[in-house]
Amino acid sequence: MRKLIALCLSAAAVAVLLVAAAPPAPFPAGTAGAAEAGDAPPTVIELFTSQGCSSCPPADQILYELARRDDVVAISWHVSYWDYIGWKDPFATDWSTARQRAYRGRFERNYVYTPQMVIDGQHDVIGSRRGTVTRTVADSRAEAAGRIRIGLDRDIASDELVIALPPQRLDRALEIWLVGYSGAHETRVLRGENQGAMLRNTHVARTLNHLGRWDGAAKTVRVPLPFHEDVAGFAVLLQEPGQGAIHGAAKLDLTS
Q: In angstroms, rounded to a whole number, what is the distance separating the alpha carbons of residues 185 and 174?
């Protein structure tokens, strides 16, 4: 078995990769309210991050901006492997780390690193490289029309999530994942590489449920609302087995 190496890209290393420029304009926010019926399914942007990594705050900020868009499902997965260097990330989970390590195999890397962004399960980029993130998201949005449209709603009477999957011809069954994510958080870091900093994180993965596989037949899935006091919204992901490409996604904000 190859040795697993974890990298936290230092601020200096990231700076070498960036061209000096004026402060970048923020990502445009999405239109408020529910997406129109004719809109393409959203692009899924996953950030693997840690409050213990000094190069992660710029990527956290980029995800914060992207999370405001209606055409994006943004999820922040806090990994646990940097907890030993002085600061234990309060949002880190072993299952977030496991998800990133599965992507390591998909992208045939010898290591995991932060900050890593994975877009639609098909592209991975350094999450603090704004220009690269912008281009990759735009390219993925250009292909979004062919993805599967998912219905996601909440049945208040039964306190269930209702997932509607339309009939679809599939080459192979897809995994159904349900992620419960938080709203925005601010954390004062007392130790470690970010000591003294006030960090802002958003759409942090707080629950993860595997709802089985879908063969393409029309289907309605009802799920008792997974309880977690910090959950502000849910996302459904349709993903190829082995953590491959994501073919459809939907999100539901519980706070609106």
A: 32
The single-letter code of the amino acid at 78 is H
Stretch among 37-51, 177-191, 202-216 having the lowest mean pLDDT:
37-51
Residue 27 CB contacts under 8 Å (≥ 6 apart), including other chains: 62, 65, 66, 68, 69, 134
**Residue pointed to by tokens 């959203």:** 42
pTM given for the model: 0.86
- What's the full length of the chain, in residues? 256
Residue 7, pLDDT score: 61
- For the chain, give the mean pLDDT: 87
CA dist 131 → 9, 10, 140, 152, 213 (Å):
17, 18, 14, 32, 36
Q: Determine the Cα–Cα distance for residues 143 and 54; give it in Å rounded to an integer.
A: 34
User: What residues form DSSP beta bridges with 73?
Assistant: 44
Q: What is the largest CA-CA distance in the chain?
A: 55
Pick from 200, 211, 199, 201: nearest CA to 235: 211
What ranges in 39-129 are assigned the alpha helix state H? 56-66, 94-106
